[in-house]
Amino acid sequence: MKRSFLKTGDGSITIHLPEWDEQYHSKHGAIAEAKHVFIQEGFNFYRLQNPAVNHLRILEIGFGTGLNCLLTMMHASDQGLEVNYTGVEKFPVELSEVKQLNYATQLNQPINDFEKLHELRWEQWCKLSDTFSLFKHKCDFSELVYDAQFDLIYFDAFGPRVQPELWSVAIFKRMFNALSPNGVLVTYSAKGDVKRALKKVGFTIERLAGPPFKRHMLRAVKL
Ligand SMILES: C[S@@+](CC[C@H](N)C(=O)[O-])C[C@H]1O[C@@H](n2cnc3c(N)ncnc32)[C@H](O)[C@@H]1O
After folding, report:
1. Atom of ligand 1 nearest to the CA of 34
2. Which DSSP symbol is given to 169?
3. Structural domain boundaries of the chain?
4. CA-15 nearest atom, ligand 1
5. CATH superfamily of 29-221
6. 156 CB under 6 A from ligand 1?
7. Considering 7, 63, 198, 214, which has the largest number of Cβ atoms within 10 A of its Cβ?
8. CA 146 – CA 131 distance, rounded (Å)
9. pLDDT score, position 65
10. Nearest residue CA, atom 12 of ligand 1?
């Protein structure tokens, strides 16, 4: 599918899919959205609830541009925490496309650190620092079978408008199984159908304030 580039409200660039009129991030700010939904309401919430945990196991559904991974790496390093990060992606972004994204510059990070996320091999653990390891898994979300292996899931698939099949009870059942007890899933969508599917598989749901110009988002906890 054709991909083009779009400058979002906070100056960070996202990928646009003209065929679906869909973006990888909010038009109002890619970095702002990622920080709010995944770092603040996901990572920080999990830590608040589990202050004794110094090593987080994170699963990202839709690795895409690697923005969430970069932000998590920066944040975990600031907090002195260890992270094992698994990113799942079926249609990887090409390195030539990565070079058009301005996240490293916007976040004051070395460009090489960002590009490296995309150059690393798939299907193996790669150590990016003493405290951060990344495993990129190239497959379809619907094939994932994990058993209580993760503390936190960043659910960042394309929206239910264009990929309703990825926001189904069947997929969320797999997400529920992938989490350890007290595990947390965060997502930018707060649609009623999404909420109902998450509840149906056993999650406890909270509807939270969304990132800039988006009213709500969801957090689901496996109690
Ligand atoms: C909203 S974008 C993700 C954004 C990503 N988290 C980021 O920050 O760039 C959704 C991602 O899910 C991927 N994707 C879509 N359908 C998929 C599927 N069935 N299995 C695996 N990945 C899929 C897309 O290629 C895209 O990278």
Report:
1. 8
2. H
3. 29-221
4. 9
5. Vaccinia Virus protein VP39 (3.40.50.150)
6. yes
7. 63
8. 23
9. 98
10. 62
